[in-house]
Amino acid sequence: MVELLGAGILNVLQAKYLLSLVIGTLAGVVGGALPGVTITMTIILILPFTFGLDPLQGLAAMTGVYVGGSAGGLITACLIGIPGTPSTIATTFDGFPMAQKGQPGRAVWLGVWASFWGGLLGGVFLIAATGPLAAFALQFGPWEFFSLFVFALAMVAGLTGTSLVKGLISGAIGLMATIIGADPIMGVPRLTLGSEFLQGGFQFLPILIGIFAFAQIMTDIEKMSGGGPARDVARQAPSLSVSHLKIIAEVLGRPFLLLWSTFIGILIGVLPAIGGSAANIMAYDQAKKFSRHPERFGTGTPEGIIASESSNNANVGGSLVTIMAFGIPGDAVTAVMLGAMIIHGIQPGPLFISQEPRLAYGIFAAYLLAHPIMVLLIGAGARLFMRIVTVPKPVLIPVVLVFCVVGAYALNNTIENVYVLLLFGVVGYAMVKFAFPLAPLILGVVLGDQIEVNLVRAIMTDANPWLFLTRPISGTLIALSVVSVVLAIWQHYRAQARMAEAAEPDVDF
Amino acid sequence: MRKIVSLGVLFALVLVAAASLPAAYPDRPVKLIVPWAAGGDTDNIFRPFAPGLQKALGATVVIANVGGASGTVGAREAKNSPPDGYTLYAVHDYIHSTYYTGVSDVKYSDFEPVCLLSSTPSVLTASPKTKWTSWQELLADAKARPGQISVGATLGSTSHFFPALIEKAAGIKFKYVSYEGLAPRMNAILGGHIDLTDSNLTQKGKVDAGQLRFLAIATEKRSPEIPSVPTLKELGLNVVFSVERGLMVPKGTAGDVIAKLDAACAQASKEPAFAESMKKQGTEVRYLDRKAYAEYQKKLDDLNRELAKDLGLLKR
Fold first, then answer.
1. Is residue A219 part of a domain?
2. Three-state DSSP class for B88?
3. CB count in 10 Å sphere of residue A380
4. What is the DSSP letter of A348?
5. A122, B114, B175, B309: least surrounded by Cβ within 10 Å?
6. What's the pLDDT score for residue B97?
7. CB-CB neighbours of A302 under 10 Å
8. Domain segments of chain B: what residues?
9. A471 within a domain of the structure (yes/no)
């Protein structure tokens, strides 16, 4: 394994891979730093450019975007108090107060180094756990996969929104979108209205782009007024120079906090469908609970920044484990990566590591190398990124929209995918307006066919329906689904009793 | 500034005008529809073929994996694509079998043949979680437990026909479970979720590693790659079965475009890198030009109709 990893690192250090990794990381940092542009959006924008590359080049670029994006958001979070991506929401709680107190450099670099160490720890887990988990994944028959997907849907419906019912409806809309088209077993056309295009069903990526890019940008346009607050703060051009050794010591001097936040990040990453936006808030919450001085949280305490930033980068490692071992996307970003892998002719899943060791260890290596690259890029260009943040939205948004359309078209070179993008852009916008969470919808679309196929397979293999409950892994997963729904109901009641606070509508699950 | 803008507009107009002139085929990327998941055996054959085709054709070839419904989704998409030579369709014998078993409404005659490319013999493969080490043990078990042994197959396709032929020849009964394409079948058989499947020499590595067992090969003579595996004929079953893969284009494609594609196919099938990759996969490179392939397709179609009828799967 060590030799394979060494070979992977040497491989990725070749100019053609390193270049795409650096460009990807840079794009990720910039995309992450731009408020309103999520990591998912950035990776969607990068995707069409990777079609012509060799698989590892493309995947290195995407891994770079993922790592860079998870860190890039903290620059804006600390300096202007607006999370660059939803996975840096908790970073604003302490990062911005610290910057206001005259320590902007300390705030940013605490975040960067926490991202670095959290990410590397996540990487250790990624490399050590993917193989054993892949072996475990082979034990998953149709029953287990069915129950796993049900669990994922139950969890995301319960966790991401303010209302369980809305979460479930959103998931159901996603599942229903996959009913359209030829059925996956015998090819019987369903709800196609005689249209040839609908016989193929909706493809996943145009839906994703519609929901996550279009719908979010539309709401951004609504919120837009003048130049926005970013300009004024950026003009102050704060000095970011700090003593890095001191900051690293500050991060590593809190080993328990770092490890626990990293653990939360990894765990949330491994669970399908909940991503960085949940990880950073949960880690922050935990850090506050365990702290001897919880009252300092929110006033600019380093613990808050470290918890949030180490967890969201560790989350990336966890998500990559799920996609590489099970072939199931851990969140929207890995869902795009899954699409990219398939375009390059790679089917991730339990056999991925043993059949494609060069590629698998190439991804590991790209993940590890992306972290120092991210630190160097931010070190070299933090001031510059602040300028980019001030790009007026009237300039930025049209460019992003055009790239979305190009991405949808380039997928299959068919214009119909652009119509699908528009349709789901409108659907997504309506859902945002009515405060429906978007994450369950996307998960429903990703898993719809798989749920159906595995249900049919299970019944074809053995007609006994109790097997879903009596097979140990499957039964446990079903029990966990019930628990997560009950827990969600309980939490909603408790929250209602406490008077619900205003919820954050941005979700980058 | 204004001058630059107007120059730019002019340039763009010239480009548009140039693009609308009838140019020699091919002047833009060509899409190759593989109607199965990436990493399956059809994908594994056409992916190494694509670079050679690209070189011979002088245009980018983009593989689009359009899986689902026993390859029917991809077949329909190919059939409904404009017949301009910019959509190619990677086909194998399933086009005949899924039509006659009623899974698909797309027929081989909805397309124009371009060339036959390869021939891959089928190998009966067992999960390591089963106790059979030979065909005889499987046969005894199958007779003791009729309808209990599960076979992963793409329903109505070649991976369904092959075990069905064995069923008929040996007088046994299997139970079929839908696993589309070889890649998901391999996950299922390695985990022991199905007992048997149709596979091919691409899986030799897993057999050597003890993860799978080859029980018998459906060739006339034993394969030099796996000399220890008996042929079904030796075992007293008159079953010889292979999957033939080729290229087709939607009906109505101009003759000169097909001729160009066929010439490119002939050239690409001779690429040493392609030959090397096919050898590793236990596949014979078998080029036939468009005329010979058309005749062969007709023969295959009749054969599949007969097979479907014999197996009691004929729905048309």
1. yes
2. strand
3. 10
4. -
5. B309
6. 82
7. 23
8. 25-119+243-310, 123-217
9. yes
Q: What is the mean pLDDT of residues A400-416?
A: 78
Which pLDDT score is estimated for A234?
A: 47
Q: How would residue A367 be classed by pLDDT, with cut points 50, 70 and 90?
A: very high
Domain that holds residue A288: 2-497
pLDDT, residue B16, reads 47
Which fold would CATH assign to domain B123-217? D-Maltodextrin-Binding Protein; domain 2 (3.40.190)
State how many domains chain A has.
1
Query: Are A140 and B191 inside 8 Å of each other by CB?
Result: yes
Partners of residue A337 in chain B, C-beta under 8 Å: none
Average of per-residue pLDDT across A240-263 = 84
Domain pair B25-119+243-310 / B123-217, same fold: yes
Judge contact between A74 and A112, C-beta under 8 A: yes
Q: Do A347 and B39 touch (CB under 8 A)?
A: yes
Both tokens assigned to B165: 């032929």
In a domain, A504, yes or no: no
CA distance B63 to B40: 13
Is position A503 within any domain?
no
For residue A179, list chain B residues with Cβ-Cβ distance below 8 A: none
Partner residue opposite B104 with nearest CB, options A187, A344, A460: A187
Determine the residue of chain B that is closest to A201 in CA distance.
Answer: B73
Average pLDDT over residues A331-353: 76
In this structure, of A220-229, A393-402, B38-47, B86-95, the range with the lowest mean pLDDT score is A220-229
Query: Which two structure tokens, joined as six digits, stand for A384?
Result: 């510059």
Class of domain B25-119+243-310: alpha beta
Q: Which of residues 114-173 of B touch A (CB under 8 A)?
A: 150, 155-156
Backbone angles phi, psi at B65, to 5 degrees: -85, 110
Q: Which residues contact A320 (CB under 8 A, 6 or more apart)?
A: A63, A66, A126, A130, A269, A330, A334, A363, A367
Give the one of B38, B177, B191 whose C-beta lies nearest to A460's C-beta.
B177
